[in-house]
């Protein structure tokens, strides 16, 4: 029997600050590092040998995975795929969730965060938070980089990648994916 292990990255700096993070590349907090260690210890306790590792392009997911691999004493290279990135929050990117609840209302923020096909307004390409202005995305064709995404968009991006690149690996070994709340939710919806 093969295992597919889905790990949401540990707490990031912007999680702590209650900011919409999306595709902005922010690192883990100390608490986030401890959460990653705990995940690694749980996997080690189960004595699951991982054959294939995947992560998004984002440093918070990459560093979560590196901490897990250190605990497992496993130095296998992992595949980094932008398709496993967090949902792109568009014009909400970088804004404080509590302040936005007050400014445009909890119901509207809830709609943006949880409705299937509602997208926040597009993020301006002039914003320093736009992926075309962030170094890790320079190799992605610009026409594939979103300005905003709905949960449906994220689902399609993540599950298409899973189907083409990961699904067959699960039939041949144990796979661990270090990703994000919305990309993992998309996979869970697809799998269950």
Alpha carbon gyration radius: 17 Å
Extended strand count: 4
Beta-strand content: 5-15%
Shape: globular
pLDDT < 50 stretches:
none
Name the helicity range: 40-55%
Order of helices and strands: EHHEHEHHHEH
The separation of the N and C termini measures 18 Å
- Order of strands across the biggest sheet? 1-4-2-3
Secondary-structure content class: alpha/beta
What's the pLDDT, averaged over the residues?
96
Major β-sheet profile: 4 strands, parallel
Number of helices: 7
Detailed description of the structure:
There is one protein chain. The chain has 192 residues and is of the alpha/beta class. The protein has seven helices and four strands. A four-stranded parallel sheet has the order 1-4-2-3. Helix 2 crosses helix 3 (59-72), helix 4 packs across helix 5 (106-114) and helix 6 (151-170) crosses helix 7. The longest helix has 20 residues, at 151-170. The mean pLDDT is 96.
């Amino acid at each position: 029997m093969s295992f597919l292990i889905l790990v949401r990255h540990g707490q990031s700096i912007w999680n702590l600050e209650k900011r919409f993070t999306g595709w902005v590349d922010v690192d883990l907090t100390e608490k986030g590092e401890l959460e990653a260690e705990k995940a690694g210890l749980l996997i080690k306790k189960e004595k699951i040998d991982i054959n294939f590792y995947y992560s998004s392009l984002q440093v918070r997911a990459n560093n979560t995975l590196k901490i897990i691999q250190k605990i497992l004493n496993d130095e296998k290279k992992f595949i980094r795929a932008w398709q496993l990135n967090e949902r792109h929050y568009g014009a909400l990117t970088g804004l404080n969730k509590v302040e936005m609840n007050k400014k445009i209302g909890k119901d509207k923020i809830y709609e943006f965060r949880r409705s299937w096909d509602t997208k926040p307004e597009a993020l301006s390409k002039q914003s320093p938070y736009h992926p075309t202005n962030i170094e890790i995305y320079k190799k992605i064709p610009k026409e594939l980089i979103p300005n905003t995404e709905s949960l449906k968009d994220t689902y399609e991006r993540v599950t298409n990648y899973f189907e083409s690149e990961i699904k067959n690996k699960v039939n041949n070994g144990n796979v661990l994916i270090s990703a994000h709340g919305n990309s993992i939710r998309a996979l869970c919806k697809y799998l269950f």
